Amino acid sequence: MAELLKVMNINKRFGGIVAVKDVSFEIHRGETLGFIGPNGAGKSTIVNLLSGLFPADSGEVELDGVNITKMKPYQRAHLGMARTYQIPRPFPELTALASVATSALCGKKRKNQSLEDAAVEATHYLEFVGLFSKRNILARDLTFYELRMLELARALATTPKLLFIDEVMAGLNPGEASHAIQMIGRAKEQFGVTVFWIEHVMAVLMEAADRIVAINYGAKLAEGTPEEVVNNEDVIEAYLGRGWRTYA
């Protein structure tokens, strides 16, 4: 597979704390790459570095052959990068329709697009995630699961090449989590996005990921197929616990 994202030796410190240490990996076009690690391992920090929210102290990142290391988040969005957040970040005073239309105006193919056209596009993404009937509801009045789906619709409305999913299962009941997994799979198939999926629930990535990268203390611990990673002794000790096989 061709590389879509290439991460080369990125590092990040916060004061005296090393949050990310010399991490390198690639994401291949069309795959779902899972990203795991214990709480505090640096998963969300790496996403913030890749999406441009934080600047890297050193290292380089390329998206589709373009060096984006010093680019701002909006510039990365214009090149086809989008993300969801572990804690949903809606515009509370906007309707679901206006929220997604705003994202449609900010994507990679949006030059001179009218608000009316963006609203039409937004209805399609809301219908895709099952929120069309809630299109005129303020974001602040949506349920937590609906906010998760609104996050997904907003990200897809930017027409990304690469979609970051940050612990979408957090706070969902089993039925909602199952539906969310199916929804992301459908998005990958229908919109042709490549998925970088950060998740704490290992069983989710065993089902959804083509490959997995594991990190601990901000450094890469293992990389391979889901089966290879869950059977890696370092991963078992650092993330899953030595008793994981007993209960698997």
Write up what this structure looks like.
The protein is of the alpha/beta class and 248 residues long. The chain has one domain: Rossmann fold. It is 38% helix and 25% strand. The chain is built from ten helices and ten strands. The protein has helices at 43-51, 73-78, 96-104, 115-128, 144-156, 174-191, 202-208, 226-230, 233-240, 244-247; strands spanning 3-14, 17-28, 32-36, 58-63, 66-67, 81-83, 162-166, 194-198, 211-216, 219-224. The strands form two sheets. The chain has a six-stranded mixed sheet, sandwiched between helices. A four-stranded antiparallel sheet has the order 2-1-4-5, covered by helices on one side. A hairpin with a 2-residue loop joins strand 4 (58-63) and strand 5. Helix 3 (96-104) runs parallel beside helix 5. The longest helix is centred in the C-terminal third of the chain and has 18 residues, at 174-191. It is globular, with a radius of gyration of 18 Å. The two termini are 31 Å apart.
Please outline what is shown here:
The chain is an alpha/beta fold and 248 residues long. It is built from 10 helices and 10 strands.
Overall mean pLDDT stands at 90
CATH class: Alpha Beta
Determine the CATH superfamily: P-loop containing nucleotide triphosphate hydrolases
Into which percentage range does the β-strand content fall?
Answer: 25-35%
CATH architectural label: 3-Layer(aba) Sandwich
Low-pLDDT segments? none
- Element string (H = helix, E = strand): EEEHEEHEHHHEHEHEEHHH
At the fold tier of CATH, the topology name is Rossmann fold
**Shape descriptor:** globular
